[in-house]
């Protein structure tokens, strides 16, 4: 299988050059080649007009190329200074000279990095700036940024783009990889589009729309967004009451969390990463036990249930970290198809595993979800991040869950796959699926959710109406600022659960609100396809 064929890319000094393409188009392979992680079979790389050959990342770094990976490469228990000098002690030592160089770079490029801060105490945006500092510290003049805005709120994206302008002003070059086409057009000076491993065109941002760029990526016209009707019912599917979870030192990371989700409803939780979303997900799926509170599924308490029992009773799970909780990277795709569902068909029948049935169903998922792979026997780790995500979504949706925990369901996928995943969630919602949606994509949260709540420092602090909130207002609320289109959250300790003998009775706080037509209009204006 050829990952890259006849790729042409020319990056001008002092510019931001965006690289876009579908999942599996060859972007990751190309960046691995440019960063010395993989050797090309043929072709030429020139740096400042001189031919270069990279046998390792050290060779690329020596020629001024640095890479900031989508998944940060930082040691949480070390300081910023320690993370920065690790592996580069020969440059400026590990003491005063290194500290002075870090402060100098931080001030020069407006990074606002504190050398003595521990990485575990930093937010996502700060960690990203540390990663940028690391490559600058090593002398990079060309930076590769892989999906740098995937986990940032709008204000943090603006700050990052300000940093990129500082880099450009100093004559540095940036290769910017992203699936967020609106951001690409706003920050890039030049754009290269690759499809199926080949360069298919270039674009001038000022003369291109997101829709045109998306269609150049996929090679066909994208579907037009359609306004969805409300599918929310009065039948309560999930109830969380007074959930509290403390860290090892006794500090609460979840504090009095309570909400309900009804059949056919998507409840969106908005928040800057690190404010309790991970702990909430782990408590709902059974990876962590709560210190207090209750979780009820269709009126039945599941708080003490292990993860497997919750899965067998219809809880689907798209994890926020696909590598840690979603896949076995060294196992073939068909074994990953069985992951989390080894007691259910088609993975098993009775007490017996049924590998052939799992293999056949894996082929169906690969075809239905357009997972770009040479076959089902390759390892999950050999796929691009977007194709890994499509495999996970296909696996979870195939089991027709009653309740789906969807954490960043479209992170790292291209516009075509994003629209497909959204359609799959909408279709299942029409059939009664209840969804808890957690996402860093605020357009996704606003466009898919029937109800929005904001989590801040482990508490649900505000409610928002998707019909009226903007991404900027939602982003402000996520950082603790107030907004005119948000209401203070109601007390989260929920009322007693409804009588299980009367499942069709309205829940105390049932909602019946239409998906706003202006949501579809706003999304269309942003050219974000559904």
UniProtKB/TrEMBL annotation:
Gene3D superfamilies: P-loop containing nucleotide triphosphate hydrolases (3.40.50.300). The keyword Chloroplast does not apply. Residues 474-530 are annotated as: Disordered. It comes from the Bacteria. Residues 489-510 have a biased composition (Low complexity). Residues 2-221, 238-482 form the ABC transporter domain. The keyword Transmembrane helix does not apply. Pfam families: ABC_tran (PF00005). GO terms for molecular function: ATP binding. Keywords: ATP-binding, Nucleotide-binding, Repeat, Transport. This is ABC transporter ATP-binding protein.
């Amino acid at each position: 299988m050829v990952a890259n064929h006849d790729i042409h890319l020319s990056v001008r000094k002092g510019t931001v050059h965006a690289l876009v393409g579908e999942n599996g188009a060859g972007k990751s392979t190309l960046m691995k080649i440019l960063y010395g992680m993989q050797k090309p079979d043929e072709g030429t790389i020139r740096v400042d007009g001189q031919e270069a050959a990279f046998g390792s990342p050290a060779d690329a770094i020596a020629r001024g190329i640095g890479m900031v990976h989508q998944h940060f490469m930082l040691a949480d228990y070390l300081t910023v200074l320690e993370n920065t000098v690790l592996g580069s002690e020969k440059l400026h030592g590990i003491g005063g000279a290194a500290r002075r160089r870090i402060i100098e770079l931080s001030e020069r490029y407006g990074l606002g990095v504190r050398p003595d801060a521990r990485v575990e105490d930093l937010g996502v945006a700060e960690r990203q700036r540390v990663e940028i500092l690391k490559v600058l510290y090593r002398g990079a003049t060309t930076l590769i940024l892989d999906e740098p805005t995937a986990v940032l709120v709008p204000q943090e994206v603006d700050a990052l783009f300000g940093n990129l302008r500082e880099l450009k002003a100093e004559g540095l070059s940036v290769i910017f990889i992203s699936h967020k086409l609106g951001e690409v057009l706003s920050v890039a000076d030049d754009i290269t589009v690759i499809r199926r491993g080949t360069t298919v065109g270039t674009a001038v941002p000022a003369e291109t729309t997101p829709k045109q760029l998306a269609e150049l990526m996929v090679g066909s016209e994208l579907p037009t967004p359609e306004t969805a009707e409300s599918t929310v019912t009065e039948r309560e599917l999930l109830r969380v009451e007074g959930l509290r979870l403390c860290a090892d030192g006794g500090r609460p990371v979840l504090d009095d969390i309570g909400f309900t989700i009804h059949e056919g409803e998507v409840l969106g939780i908005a928040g800057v990463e690190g404010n309790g979303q991970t702990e909430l997900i782990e408590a709902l799926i059974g990876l962590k036990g709560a210190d207090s509170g209750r979780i009820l599924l269709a009126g039945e308490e599941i708080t003490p249930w292990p993860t497997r029992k919750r899965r067998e009773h219809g809880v689907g799970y798209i994890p926020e970290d696909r590598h840690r909780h979603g896949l076995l990277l060294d196992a073939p795709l068909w074994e990953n198809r069985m992951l989390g569902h080894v007691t259910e068909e088609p993975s098993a029948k009775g007490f017996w595993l049924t590998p052939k049935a799992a293999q056949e169903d894996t082929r169906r998922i690969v075809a239905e979800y357009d997972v770009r792979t040479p076959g089902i026997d390759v390892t999950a780790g050999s796929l691009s991040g977007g194709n890994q995500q499509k495999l996970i979504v296909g696996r979870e949706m195939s089991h027709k869950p009653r309740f789906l925990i969807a954490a960043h369901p479209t992170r790292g996928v291209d516009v075509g796959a994003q629209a497909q995943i959204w359609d799959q969630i909408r279709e299942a919602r029409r059939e009664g699926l209840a969804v808890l949606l957690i996402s860093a994509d605020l357009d996704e949260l606003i466009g898919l959710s029937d109800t929005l709540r904001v989590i801040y420092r482990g508490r649900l602090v505000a409610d928002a109406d998707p019909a009226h909130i903007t991404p900027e207002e939602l982003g402000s609320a996520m950082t603790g600022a107030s907004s005119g289109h948000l209401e203070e959250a109601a007390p989260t300790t929920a009322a007693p659960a409804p009588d299980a003998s009367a499942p069709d009775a309205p829940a105390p706080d049932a909602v019946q609100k239409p998906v706003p037509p202006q949501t579809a209009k706003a999304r269309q204006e942003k050219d974000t396809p559904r």
